[in-house]
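Re: export button greyed out
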Amino acid sequence: MIIPIRCFTCGALIADKWEEYARRVRQGEEPKAILDSMGLKRYCCRRMLLSHTDLIDDILPFSQKIRKEEEVF
Amino acid sequence: MNVKIIRLEGNEFRFILEGVDVSVANALRRVMLAEVPSMAIDEVIIIENTSPVFDEMLAHRLGLIPLVTDLESYVLPEECDCKGEGCIKCTLTLTLEKEAEEEGVIVYSSDLQSQDPVVRPVSDKIPIAKMARGQRIVLEAHAKLGKGKVHAKWQPVSTCAYKYMPILEINQEKCLRCGDCVSFCPKKVLAIEGEKLVVKNIFDCSLCKSCEESCRFDAIKVSWDDKSFIFNVESTGALPPSDIVRVAINILLRKLSDLEEGLSIAVKEEAH
Ligand SMILES: [Zn+2]
Ligand SMILES: [Zn+2]
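Workaround output, generated via the alternate export path:
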């Protein structure tokens, strides 16, 4: 849903790297090169970013709808 | 006992510990993982949360944020005069208040207001939640010192591991510089420089023996020094990595002196 704060396996902080990673992937950079340049050496931390899907943007509109209905009643 | 630093840079610390047994190296590793205290959010009072991130998820995310720790100014709640009830010596309050004035506002760790300017999230760019227009988060969080053995959020290290010091013996007379071992080594430890096979970065060797197996002339031999360890300590940012090692040693010493005290009391009682 939203990027986990830490790596599930080793506990290193990875959440602060997500936005830069996602932006650079969108710009067409190779994920391997991005992960290397951000200093993520272990494969446990690398898979955290590599396999993440930011679903929160899909959930946001629905949460807003609920809020609006609450206001009506 | 001897320490040689290979690299001390940012959150990474790599050093060689010489002249000790595995038991000592492992004791040090386990103390670093489970006993060195660090600061983390332990209690969250949610006043308002209309974001799609549920209260419990929000609290969990806040707890996992590594905080820059000041071990001098805070004490563990169980060792505090307040007996863990919470006072300024053991508890730090952080507050967060944010309303989304437009669509898709991200709440960052930088939005957390700390009472103490020293203790703050290690990074300002950690996304905590995302809000649609009009949604609000208002909360109060209490950070406390804790130990890794209670919850992993209090672990000051992400990696803390050691390996034996590798020894690579190359018989230059038998070696024909065919380069097989160079290409078989997954860690790129070996290289051919000029007319000689040389060991380039011995610290990267994982003792897999691929080079030994790939050599047709028996020119290379992999072994290790079981009294010498390469330690790799990586901090989460809560404490400088060299401090983690130093604090771990002090904790280990305190445990041993407690043991000594217990022993002398037991011996005294036995004599009566
Ligand atoms: Zn990891
Ligand atoms: Zn207290």
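Residues 56-72 of chain A form the longest helix (17 residues). The button fix ships in the next patch.
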